[in-house]
Design brief:
Largest sheet: none
Strand content: under 5%
Length: about 220
């Protein structure tokens, strides 16, 4: 069944755009909570911060599952089903990695957070803003191709900056962290945050694929 053929005669379901925007809101909420956790977290409040971020992660899972259900129930979709599925999954991955970082902070209870963690979370927040801009214009993609492409390009640049932050963090960590257990704790926390920026760049790559097909 050719979506592009039938779409000439059948209205496309717009229900997916609000659901995708809902996942964006989850990413943003989890990102800002993680920034607070990095800046203000301590042994006394770590469980509360982790719970709040976990709640957001569950909201994201619910929205993703709703999208998957709608894909199975909808005759005509605005883009290929596979592209919508991949986009929702990759967006949800961003929140999953934030949640994983928060879980490690809660479980490992490092003596102090690495300074680079704040820089990395701020980059995740920047990436979430670009994802939001891109997703908000998916329903008018033919008119906004250039802008959406620019947002995706910015996601790539943010990921490059995150790589730099992570590399400098590792250099400093191995040179200056004398306690091996603390080294492992900090490295694993930062690894999860860096993976969140990778996932955000992945969102941009999927959207660029959609642009090539439909804009």
């Amino acid at each position: 069944m050719n979506n592009s053929f039938f779409s000439k005669f059948t209205p496309k379901e717009p229900k997916f755009f609000p659901l995708l925007k809902g996942i964006v809101e989850v990413i943003k909420s989890a990102s800002y909570l993680m920034l607070e956790f990095v800046e203000k977290g301590n042994h006394a409040n770590a469980a509360d911060y982790y719970k709040k971020i976990k709640d957001e992660e569950r909201k994201g899972d619910t929205l993703s599952n709703k999208i998957f259900d709608e894909l199975n129930a909808t005759f005509i979709t605005p883009f290929d089903r596979e592209d919508i599925h991949n986009l929702a999954t990759k967006m949800d991955d961003v929140t999953d990695y934030i949640n994983s970082a928060a879980k490690k902070v809660f479980l490992y209870n490092p003596k102090e957070m690495p300074a680079a963690a704040k820089d990395m979370v701020e980059l995740i927040i920047e990436a979430s803003a670009q994802i939001e801009k891109a997703v908000n214009e998916l329903d008018v993609l033919k008119k906004s191709r250039k802008r959406v492409s620019d947002y995706c390009r910015e996601l790539h640049l943010i990921e490059n900056r995150a790589d730099d932050v992570y590399e400098h963090f590792l250099i400093d960590l191995f040179e200056n962290q004398k306690e091996s257990i603390e080294l492992i704790k900090k490295k694993e926390i930062m690894f999860e945050l860096e993976k969140a920026t990778d996932a955000a760049e992945g969102v941009g790559k999927i959207i660029k694929t959609i642009i090539v097909k439909y804009a």
